[in-house]
Write a structure and sequence with these properties.
heterodimer, A: alpha/beta, D-Maltodextrin-Binding Protein, domain 2, six-stranded mixed β-sheet, five-stranded mixed β-sheet, B: alpha/beta, Rossmann fold, Arc Repressor Mutant, subunit A, five-stranded parallel β-sheet, 56% helix, elongated
């Protein structure tokens, strides 16, 4: 036995030695995590992601730093961490105040898409007479905390839009803290009239038996097609993984790639290309938070600070004049200060926008780099043809065969092939064009039809059939037409490639445009053989492909584009084929 | 049979590529025939020689390698020049092993292609002529009776009349009669010419 002990001690020493050498060469990367539910829970929740980063990004050691709201704000402000993982609301605040930039968005199993993932449900007792948001006036409402995104801010915006000011019009607004399950239980037990919880919590509690079905219901539920849970609010983007402004760009890129390549966790969580967080701006505006808080808060601050002074002024008339002058002076100075601060924040926001655009552009260039071989092939054919025609003409002239007709034919062919090459280059340039997308009101039908026509020119063997069309001019959506055409073209290309592999390139491909829910669905259905359930599940991941010459970026890129449009891209297995379709919300008059 | 009779078959699924190859070959004075797919070529090809086949490797449905396989089963002797957009070395080696005339990378310089086509057509003509001569020689040899054939073969091997008489166990006189008849039927004047005819009809080659 003593021998065994010795061996263990020696092994332990060796391990420590190797460990310390390893640690010395590894650069520590601190990843802050918003810990609403306590540090232990947060560390356990994000352990999978950190393990993956430690595995996939060599030369660095990633450590979790679990922080609550005030601690996180201080850490980000001081720059004592390199990355942070936080909810969309909190991220939106930091993007504006601290210049952090998102590199990936969480992809949750229950979410519609990374940009439509989180919402609030206001729960009430099933038997209560509350039906509208306006019915909450004068009632007792529970929320987690003033800073909670899912369990206060999202719902608060809906209340404000319904004409209920949560700070003034309610009978009582009580903050209970976490866990939010206690909010639902308190409402059931009659301790309050209503409570704000995260969407899907009610469904989860019923499934786990913590609540009986029919005890609670969701107040004023919104219909969102494809979303499994009842929600009172619209949906917002999921948690963001963000880099601080001083984090080295090289490290950010490595982490981005690692996150996008991360296999789904056992619970089905993964990472996606960052969602657009512009929708948060509307939330902050309606709740007068973030940048919109500037004037409101400082006026309150001002009144609070000089409350006693004002009373004194009223009481002591002697000081009236002096005091008004002083107040006047202070107000002017303070306004100037505010003005300056506001301008500085605007400038910062502008820099942020530029940085984000540069990142988007870099992303497109990276994709282009991968597509280079495919593009080279597409350009090689017309160039080779041009050379053949030119050499042919030269040989005819050399041999004295000067019939005008064949010579003219050759020249025309050269012109035609030049146009073909030019069109290819134009398509690539449109795709790589610098700057963000240009959203405009478009007729979806016209652009989808044009994409199909382009495709038929490029693939004369394709047999495309139109099904279930809406009437001309009906399908109005707000979209970037070139991007939508790229997606349509891409789905058609996938369809014909899948059929080509089966030797059935000319089998019919059905294209449909239908009205669905509050939007339109464009479907492309092929007869290219069966995919397994597992293949379908992986199709959206970057660099996954079933084609021998594919890059595996087409679908990931298409999904990114459709997500950015607030839509949904879905794939369903059909008998002997696949139906790929995307849904876009109809154009709304404002917002 | 000469180069004017040659037809250059061009098989490529890309319209521009096919038309431009045909134009170039036409400009260099060749007669061309273009086809969109390997299947179309195999269905329409009637065994015409001389000529050659300019064949794209990568085509949907039926690739160039498969066309070569099927064509070799028909034993037409049409030389094949492969064109490949991807310099695929293993595929080139395989194609050459199976008897391809040449394997060129696309885009290839016009003189490289035209040089290959010229050589392929000349090989096709030579092969056709050889086969014609072989057929003629065989026809003449087949006109002999079996005894005359035996005597002719012995003569070609350099035996004199006496040796032949002993070998075949017949009289000297009979050998002389067979020899006279054989030379008359074969329309030759010397034993050396008999040897040349037998060589041309070489039985180790398959019949045309």
């Amino acid at each position: 036995m003593p021998n065994l002990q010795k061996v263990i001690i020696v092994l332990a020493w060796l391990w420590l030695l190797v460990g310390s050498v390893g640690a010395a060469t590894h650069q520590v990367v601190r990843v802050a995590v918003l810990a609403d539910k306590g540090a232990a829970a947060a560390e356990e929740e994000w352990e999978y992601v950190l393990d993956w980063l430690n595995l996939d990004v060599p030369g660095h050691r990633f450590v979790i730093v679990a922080l609550d709201h005030p601690e996180l704000r201080q850490a980000v402000h001081e720059g004592s961490v390199d990355f942070l993982i936080t909810n969309a609301g909190n991220y939106g605040e930091f993007e504006y105040t601290e210049g952090v930039s998102r590199i990936a968005t969480l992809d949750s199993p229950q979410a519609l898409s990374p940009s439509q993932a989180v919402g609030s449900a206001i729960v009430v007792r099933a038997g209560s007479g509350l039906n509208e948001l306006a019915d909450l006036k004068g009632r007792h409402l529970l929320a987690a905390s003033h800073e909670a995104f899912c369990c206060y801010q999202i719902a608060a915006r809906e209340l404000v839009l319904a004409g209920v000011d949560p700070q003034k019009d309610l009978g009582q607004l009580e903050y209970t803290g976490f866990p939010i399950q206690s909010i639902a239980l308190a409402v059931r037990d009659g301790k309050a009239d209503a409570g704000i919880v995260k969407t899907c919590l009610l469904e989860q509690m019923i499934a786990s038996g913590a609540l009986k079905p029919g005890e609670l219901r969701v107040l004023a539920p919104q219909e969102i097609p494809g979303f499994a849970c009842q929600t009172t609010s619209r949906l917002y983007p999921d948690w963001a993984f963000a880099a601080l402004k001083n984090t080295p760009g090289d490290l950010s890129r490595k982490v981005t790639v690692a996150l996008l390549e991360m296999p789904k966790s056992p619970e089905g969580y993964g990472w996606a290309i960052p969602a657009h967080y512009a929708v948060l701006d509307h939330l902050f505006r309606d709740l007068k938070l973030g940048r919109y808080a500037l004037h409101q808060e400082t006026l309150e601050e001002f009144l609070h600070r000089y409350r006693y002074g004002l009373i004194v002024v009223v009481v002591v008339l002697v000081f009236w004049l002096i005091h008004t002058i002083r107040v006047d002076y202070l107000v002017t100075r303070r306004t100037r200060e505010l003005q300056r601060m506001h301008e500085e924040k605007e400038r910062m926001a502008e820099t942020m926008r530029e940085r984000q655009q540069a990142l988007d552009h870099a992303g497109r260039l990276a994709v282009l780099g991968g597509m280079a071989s495919a593009i080279a092939h597409e350009l090689k054919q017309p160039l080779a043809a041009i050379e053949n025609f030119a050499r042919g003409i030269d040989r005819r002239i050399e041999a004295g065969r000067l019939d005008p007709d064949p010579l003219r034919d050759g020249c025309n062919e050269i012109a035609l092939q030049s146009q073909r090459a030019d069109a290819t280059i134009e398509r690539i340039r449109n795709f790589a064009r610098k700057g963000g997308s240009t959203m405009q009101s478009v007729n979806l039908l016209a652009y989808v039809r044009e994409a199909v026509e382009l495709f038929e020119v490029a693939h004369p063997e394709a047999n495309i059939q139109w099904l279930g069309m809406v009437r001309q001019g009906d399908a109005r959506v707000s979209a970037d037409p070139i991007q939508i055409q790229q997606v349509t073209f891409n789905l058609l290309k996938n369809a014909i490639d899948a059929q080509g592999v089966q030797g059935r390139a000319s089998a019919p491909i059905s294209v449909s445009l239908e009205r669905e829910a509050r939007g339109y669905r464009v479907g492309v259905r092929d007869h290219g053989g069966n995919l397994t359930e597992e293949q379908v599940a992986h199709l959206f991941e970057p660099f996954f492909t079933t084609k021998s010459d594919g890059l595996g970026l087409g679908l990931a890129l298409s999904k990114w584009i459709i997500d950015a449009h607030g839509g949904m891209l879905t794939l369903t297995r059909e008998t002997a084929g696949v139906c790929a379709s995307f849904w876009l919300p109809e154009e709304t008059p404002h917002e | 049979m000469n180069e004017q009779d040659a037809i250059i078959f061009v098989v490529d699924d890309d319209d521009a590529m096919r038309r431009s190859l045909a134009y170039l070959l036409d400009s260099a004075g060749w007669r061309t025939h273009t086809l969109v797919s390997g299947r179309e070529f195999l269905d329409s090809y009637d065994g015409h020689v001389p000529g050659c086949l300019v064949l794209d490797v990568m085509m949907p449905l039926m690739g160039g390698m498969e066309v070569q396989q099927i064509l070799s089963e028909r034993a037409t002797g049409l030389p094949i020049i492969f064109l490949s957009a991807h310099g695929d070395l293993p595929m080139a080696v395989q194609a050459m092993k199976r008897g391809a005339f040449d394997f060129l990378e696309k885009p290839c310089k016009d003189h490289v292609l035209l040089d290959a086509v010229g050589r392929a057509v000349r090989q096709s003509i030579k092969q056709s002529l050889d086969q014609e001569q072989m057929a003629a020689a065989r026809a003449r040899l087949n006109s002999l009776s079996s005894r005359e054939r035996e005597v002719a073969e012995c003569l070609a091997a350099g035996d004199n009349n006496k040796t032949i008489a002993r070998k075949l166990d017949i009289s000297d006189k009979t050998v002389q009669v067979h020899r006279h008849n054989a030379m008359e039927k074969l329309q030759v004047h010397s034993t050396a010419e008999i040897a040349r005819l037998i060589l041309l009809a070489d039985a180790s080659k398959p019949p045309a």
